């Protein structure tokens, strides 16, 4: 699956603009398109009214059952491949050698399946694409309807294999692979629809194909004003008031390359049938669509001008010579308007033909001359980050300033939970091969889940530490067997090296588990397609998992009130995000490293990996980070390790301070149109489809005492530090990991305070989140510079005392006396506060001689060195999470 070179692609085509534009992006990225594949409505079609979502069950009975035997016995129709393999696509192109004509009566011509998954309007013309492009075309009728309405698709278990329309792709693609076994990738035109993308990914990965979705999130990837000033000026000129992005730029890109797509269906109250057969990519049509949509409340939201919410559908009739050797021609008399009611109308096209272009068989256009606009690797924010890392690094680290333990102005709070965002399960492999160790750990995890009656979906994040990164493929398959549902946990993987783990242990796994989380409260982002957006996650981990910041059972009141709180869309969310390495998203390879200077592209790797973290965070609507760590592979010297730490600190600082209050063009994103219509989690949008407020990252308004006029350089940023390990996945130069993101938090609900011990060897960085009217979540990062003669157990107890004592002063408005801090009862209560994760330099503390030390002391990551944002060495960094609630008076 990890093919780094050119791919052999089968392109899914519906006739719409997106699928053909995706093909052009495949070509410009150096891939070879081998064949086209299409799913079309069955011959015995039913009316559109029958195929509405409300009558999906009836459709399966009327269509699916009647057609099952017919389709099972029928072979896939192939255009461009004859039985004797001597007929070229130009010779065999459908029902007629020059036209595509259907004489099946009104029943077929006037049927649109209104599929959630597939475009079926214009299916009569699709056979002509074989001749028009010179590519073999494979077709298969659609079997069934939408059965699984979840935004993320669950692979069928066999029982329902033929019921969901998604599974119609299986026989279609198997036919392609039988004829073209060299095919190893599939491309689709999904732009904003998670619904469509996850289903194509599911089928592709089951068949061993690499999914390509170059248009995924494409409209929000900004133009570079320096490299293309003319295009940027046009884009700015055509943006509506208050719009931060211009979806129509994608249409302009299509028009520039000669892709001609005609509107063949309208399904919005703002778009009437007068739009039918208009060229969607023309400036005049784009302007008319905007005006029409605005008449009915706003512009329909992000993606509406592209038809992403089902506002319209298109049919491509021509394209650049590199792809289209002929043009599809439809006479005025061969278009029939079909009105479905409710403002929906579409064109039935019973006859069309292909007019070949002059020199159609010649190589009239080079791929490099297509003019396909590929987004810049870095957007404007992270281009600034990259510039800040070049040359001498001048630190202006804007971390939290030291403060006294004063009251925060909250009502008195008391500690009620030291693991509010989940339980920590630690597993250490001992003895035998790494494969046997991993198998035992997986078995232990399964038994633990069964013991507590938990599903693997209760796991939201994991940290895997290996002795050797070369073992990663071996453990990956075993670890992945735990997760059968969509959206596996977010994950971080590092190698600690030969001397960092106990001699008999080759792997440790730390899991964060949410025992009280309901399945509907969990949301994941698992993009497995290659795109320009961020690296694909083809493996047993998601880019991110979001869940309630405070567990349901910790709310106040009875069961009814708890259920209401859980369902409340205003509840704050925690977001666990996978570690991000600097892969180029479109190719899934690292930026090239000059052989004579391995460090020369480290600034680029830092900026790119951090951009990935930002894009994942924004897609999950993260407004603020709790803290972050940058992992670096083994350095040649302490000075090199320190330099890398300063690079990370500068990148983190710049990524925050280059933003301004309010929405950002680089990060202002929201849920896709399918979500807005069908997913209750996103049904908080107004009638225009626009969210009341789409926060940026960072969203400065979430900070307490936010002052828009304050100089941004004075604003605090979340704490960041760096660690040196042995090796990172893919031999990356850096891996960024945000410990937690906060989403759906209210303005002014986050406070940040830093407190130092009297000896200044221990510093606490508190991030305090008012998660509800009565509950407060606190993440505390504790850093420690070792005092000689101190044991790790002594440090751990001191950390617990410090966290409890500091937060008691801040949140309970109580100053503890020295005698109280040494009281035995208080000590017991304090050391019950356990760290979620601890980074430690084993050379400072003897942990390796005791084979049970790692599991006994919680989630420990052994590091070669640790560095704060000022380039100072540290011995221990621990992450604590606590939950506080109003004290009863």
Record keyword descriptors for this entry.
six-stranded mixed beta sheet; 25% helix; 20 helices; 34 strands; 2 domains; alpha+beta; seven-stranded mixed beta sheet; Rossmann fold; 889 residues
Number of domains: 2
Structure annotation, total helices? 20
Q: Name the beta content range.
A: 15-25%
Distance separating the two termini? 61 Å
Describe the sheet with the most strands: 7 strands, mixed
Q: How confident overall, as mean pLDDT?
A: 79
**Rg, please?**
29 Å
Which bin fits the share of residues in helices? 10-25%
- DSSP, total strands: 34
Structural class: alpha+beta
| Morphology call | elongated
Low-confidence stretches: 45-98, 102-109, 224-245, 396-406, 553-568, 660-693, 817-821
Oligomer: single chain
Question: Would you give an account of this structure?
Answer:
It is a single chain. With 889 residues, this protein is α+β, with helices and mostly antiparallel strands. The chain has two domains: 8-220 and 227-369, Rossmann fold; 380-388 and 421-591 and 605-684 and 696-886, no CATH class. The chain has 20 helices and 34 strands. Strands 14, 27, 28, 29, 30, 31 and 34 form a seven-stranded mixed β-sheet that branches. Helix 10 (380-388) packs antiparallel against helix 15 and helix 11 (434-451) runs parallel beside helix 12 (472-480). The chain is elongated. It starts with 7 loop residues before the first strand and ends with a strand. Mean pLDDT is 79; it is low at 45-98, 102-109, 224-245, 396-406, 553-568, 660-693 and 817-821.
């Amino acid at each position: 699956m990890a093919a780094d070179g050119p791919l052999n692609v089968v392109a899914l085509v519906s006739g719409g603009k997106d699928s053909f534009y995706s093909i052009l992006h495949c070509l410009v990225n150096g891939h070879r398109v081998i064949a086209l594949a299409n799913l079309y409505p069955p011959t015995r079609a039913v009316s559109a009214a029958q195929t509405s979502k409300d009558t999906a069950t009836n459709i399966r009975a009327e269509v699916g059952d009647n057609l099952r035997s017919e389709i099972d016995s029928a072979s896939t129709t192939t255009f461009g491949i004859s039985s004797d393999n001597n007929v070229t696509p130009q010779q065999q192109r459908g029902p007629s050698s020059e036209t595509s004509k259907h004489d099946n009566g009104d029943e077929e011509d006037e049927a649109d399946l209104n599929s959630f998954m597939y475009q079926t309007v214009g299916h009569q013309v699709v056979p002509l694409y074989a001749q028009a492009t010179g590519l073999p075309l494979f077709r298969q009728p659609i079997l069934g309807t939408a059965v699984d309405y979840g935004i993320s698709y669950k692979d069928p278990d066999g029982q329902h294999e033929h019921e969901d329309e998604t599974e119609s792709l299986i026989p279609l693609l198997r036919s392609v692979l039988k004829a073209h076994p060299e095919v190893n990738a599939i491309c689709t035109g999904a732009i904003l629809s998670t619904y469509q993308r996850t289903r194509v990914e599911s089928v592709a990965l089951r068949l061993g194909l690499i999914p390509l979705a170059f248009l995924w999130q494409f409209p929000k990837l900004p133009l570079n004003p320096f490299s293309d000033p003319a295009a940027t000026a046009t884009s700015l000129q055509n943006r509506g008031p208050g719009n931060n992005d211009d979806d129509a730029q994608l249409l302009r890109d299509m028009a520039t390359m000669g892709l001609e797509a005609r509107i063949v269906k309208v399904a919005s109250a703002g778009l009437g049938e007068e739009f039918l057969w208009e060229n969607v990519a023309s400036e005049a049509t784009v302007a008319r669509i905007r005006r029409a949509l605005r008449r009915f409340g706003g512009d329909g939201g992000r993606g509406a001008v592209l038809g992403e919410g089902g506002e319209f559908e298109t049919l491509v009739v021509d394209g650049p010579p590199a792809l289209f050797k002929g043009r599809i021609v439809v006479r005025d008399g061969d278009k029939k308007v079909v009105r479905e009611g409710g403002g929906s109308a579409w064109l039935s096209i019973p006859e069309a033909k292909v007019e070949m272009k002059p020199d159609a068989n010649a190589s009239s256009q080079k791929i490099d001359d297509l003019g396909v606009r590929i987004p810049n690797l870095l957007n404007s924010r992270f281009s600034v980050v990259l510039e800040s890392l070049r040359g001498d690094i001048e630190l202006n680290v804007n971390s939290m300033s030291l403060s006294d333990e004063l009251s925060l102005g909250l009502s008195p709070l008391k500690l009620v939970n030291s693991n509010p965002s989940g339980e920590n399960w630690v597993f250490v492999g001992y003895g035998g091969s790494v494969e046997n160790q991993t198998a035992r750990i997986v078995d232990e995890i399964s038994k633990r889940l069964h013991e507590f009656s938990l599903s693997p979906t209760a796991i939201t994040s994991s940290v895997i530490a290996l002795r050797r990164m070369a073992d990663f493929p071996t453990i990956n398959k075993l670890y992945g067997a735990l997760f059968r549902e969509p959206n596996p946990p977010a994950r971080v993987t590092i190698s600690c090296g030969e001397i960092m783990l106990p001699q008999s242990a080759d792997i440790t796994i730390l899991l964060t588990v949410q025992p009280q989380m309901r399945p509907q409260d969990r949301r994941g982002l698992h993009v497995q397609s290659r795109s320009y957006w961020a690296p694909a996650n083809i493996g047993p981990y998601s880019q991110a998992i979001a869940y309630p910041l405070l567990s349901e059972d910790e709310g106040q009141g009875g069961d009814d009130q708890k259920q209401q709180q859980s369902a409340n869309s205003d509840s704050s969310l925690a977001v666990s995000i996978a570690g991000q390495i600097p892969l180029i998203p479109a190719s899934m390879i690292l930026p090239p490293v000059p052989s004579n200077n391995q460090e020369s592209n480290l600034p680029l790797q830092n900026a790119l990996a951090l951009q990935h973290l930002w894009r994942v965070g924004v897609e999950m609507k993260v407004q603020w980070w709790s803290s972050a760590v940058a992992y670096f592979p083994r350095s040649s010297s302490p000075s090199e390790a320190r330099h890398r730490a300063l690079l990370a600190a500068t990148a983190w600082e710049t990524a925050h301070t280059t933003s301004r209050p309010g929405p950002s063009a680089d990060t202002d994103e929201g849920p896709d149109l399918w979500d807005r219509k069908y997913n209750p989690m996103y049904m908080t949008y107004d009638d225009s489809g626009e969210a009341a407020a789409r926060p940026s990252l960072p969203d400065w308004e979430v900070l307490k005492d936010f002052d828009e006029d304050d100089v941004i350089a004075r604003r605090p940023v979340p704490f960041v530090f760096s660690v040196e390990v042995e090796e990172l996945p893919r031999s990356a130069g850096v891996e960024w990991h945000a410990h937690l993101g906060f989403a759906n938090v209210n303005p002014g609900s986050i406070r940040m305070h830093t407190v130092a011990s009297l000896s200044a060897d221990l510093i606490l960085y508190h991030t305090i989140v008012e998660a509800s009217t009565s509950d407060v979540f606190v993440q505390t990062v504790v850093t420690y510079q070792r005092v000689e003669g101190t044991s790790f157990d002594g440090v751990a107890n001191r950390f617990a005392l410090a966290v409890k004592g500091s937060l008691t002063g801040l949140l309970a408005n109580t100053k503890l006396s020295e005698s109280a801090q040494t009281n035995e009862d208080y000590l017991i209560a304090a050391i019950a506060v356990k760290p979620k994760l601890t980074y430690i330099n084993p050379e400072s503390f003897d942990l390796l001689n005791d084979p049970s030390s790692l599991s006994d002391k919680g989630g420990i990551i052994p590091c070669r060195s640790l560095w704060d944002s000022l380039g100072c060495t540290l011995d221990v960094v621990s992450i604590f999470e606590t939950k506080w609630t109003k004290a009863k008076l």
